[in-house]
């Protein structure tokens, strides 16, 4: 009974919010929001997610899934890693850093080769790359580089094997941007070259050249909905176009196949824009609106991000696509729940299914953050691609990993002596331990 009452209360609160928001949708969708307003919206959502995740850690009785390094969490961190570079969000920055340190900059998987090359498990590499560029600490990057190096030969096997490494369209968001940026960070083209080889193998197998959309995987090429329509999953297309945006963000301007990526991006965005519905959102099954008539926000957030990215970087014509961006952003904001988190999200899966208003997920929040950060730049001049990588700073570190232990306000003599001993031990580590950066000079 209590649970039912809580559900009814949530539904009423959400419905009231939607009624109020829908009155403002048309006006909001005709005007570019102020940059600070948009950044504030994004910060609130990111902080709400961080607070929710921290509560789960401290309250096991909630029986909710903790933060981890899988693709769901990784997509959230793709957004927050960009957010902390442009906004002051100390809670989000601390959560990014603490999570990466907690998992030792590593990846999930059970150790079998098929897990080592799994794109879903490599998506978290985006966070580790961002932290490396922020700190300059090589150990942050080493586990990722090892995992990518192991994967490289399988991406470009010749002759091409019967099965794809990246056999599902979602993977084009998960791994290719990480490989592309690894080449930008290291200066070694082996990562982007292997990525490029596998990417176009996926394209050849999954891309429908008539409708300019991707089948989720080869099962869906001939499959039809109950209404006889081809099945093109909204979030599946979102994964691809958002992945393309992130690839182009780091791909060298003179990379031989770059024009093909630009052409594919433009081709898909043209098709996707035409499928937007009057409320600004897209449906889970893009070509079969009757199958799932309700809006779906995770695909919409990815599309809004990609459209705004295309405008901001000169890939899409502003006059044509700006109305789609503004309608998408206004529509998404209608589904921010009382918790501050985006609702109306399709749960994790592999095809269109019904969507519930109260459903939230980390990947949708990550997509919303990405969209908001591009919306915030719509009044800025066009920014040329690729975006320059920040130069990693000179690292700040101490040879000792003994954690600080501040003395209380009125320490006892024993506490003072222990503090002095700990500090002396910490100094001894620094004085006596060989440091490759400091002591390996010729």
UniProtKB/TrEMBL annotation:
Alphabetized Gene3D superfamilies for the sequence: 1.50.10.10
Pfam family, one: Glyco_hydro_88
Ranges where the record places region Disordered: 387-442
Biased composition annotated in UniProt, kind: Basic and acidic residues: 415-442
Keywords: Hydrolase, Signal
GO BP annotation list: carbohydrate metabolic process
Protein name listed in UniProt: Glycosyl hydrolase family 88
Source domain of life: Bacteria
Record GO terms (molecular function): hydrolase activity
Signal peptide region: 1-27
Classification via SUPFAM superfamilies: Six-hairpin glycosidases (SSF48208)
Source species: Cellvibrio mixtus
């Amino acid at each position: 009974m209590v649970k039912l009452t809580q559900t009814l209360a949530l539904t009423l609160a959400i419905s009231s919010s939607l009624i109020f928001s829908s009155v403002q949708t048309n006006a909001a969708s005709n005007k570019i929001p102020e940059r600070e307003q948009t950044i504030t919206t994004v910060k609130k959502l990111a902080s709400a997610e961080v607070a929710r995740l921290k509560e789960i850690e401290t309250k096991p009785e909630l029986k909710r899934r903790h933060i981890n390094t899988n693709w769901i969490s990784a997509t959230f961190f793709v957004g927050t890693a960009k957010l902390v570079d442009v906004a002051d969000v100390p809670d989000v920055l601390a959560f990014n850093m603490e999570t990466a340190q907690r998992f030792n900059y590593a990846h999930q998987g059970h150790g079998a080769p098929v897990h080592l090359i799994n794109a879903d498990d490599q998506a978290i590499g985006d966070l580790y790359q961002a932290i490396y560029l922020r700190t300059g600490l090589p150990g942050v990057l080493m586990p990722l580089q090892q995992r990518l190096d192991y994967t490289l030969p399988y991406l470009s096997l010749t002759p091409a094997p019967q099965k794809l490494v990246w056999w599902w369209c979602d993977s084009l968001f998960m791994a290719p941007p990480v490989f592309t940026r690894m080449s930008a960070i290291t200066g070694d083209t082996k990562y982007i070259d292997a990525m490029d080889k596998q990417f176009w193998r996926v394209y050849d197998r999954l891309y429908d050249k008539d409708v300019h959309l991707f089948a989720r995987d080869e099962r869906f090429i001939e499959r039809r909905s109950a209404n006889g329509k081809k099945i093109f999953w909204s979030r599946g297309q979102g994964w691809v176009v958002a992945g393309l945006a992130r690839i182009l963000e780091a791909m060298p301007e003179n990379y031989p196949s770059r024009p093909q990526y630009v052409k594919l991006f433009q081709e898909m965005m043209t098709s996707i824009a035409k499928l937007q519905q009057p409320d600004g959102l897209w449906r889970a099954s893009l070509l079969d609106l009757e199958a799932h008539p309700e809006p779906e926000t995770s695909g919409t957030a990815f599309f809004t991000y990609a459209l705004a990215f295309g405008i901001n970087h000169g890939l899409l014509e502003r006059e044509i696509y700006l109305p789609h961006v503004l309608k998408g952003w206004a529509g998404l904001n209608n589904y921010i729940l009382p918790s501050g988190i985006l609702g109306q999200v399709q749960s994790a899966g592999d095809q269109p299914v019904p969507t519930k208003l109260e459903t939230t997920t980390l990947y949708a929040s990550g997509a919303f953050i990405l969209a908001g950060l591009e919306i915030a730049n719509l009044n800025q001049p066009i920014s040329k691609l690729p975006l320059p990588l920040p130069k990693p700073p000179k690292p700040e570190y101490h040879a000792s990993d003994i954690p600080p232990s501040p003395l209380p306000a009125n320490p006892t003599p024993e506490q003072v002596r222990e503090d002095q001993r700990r500090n002396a031990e910490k100094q001894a580590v620094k004085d006596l331990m060989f440091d490759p950066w400091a002591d390996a000079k010729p």
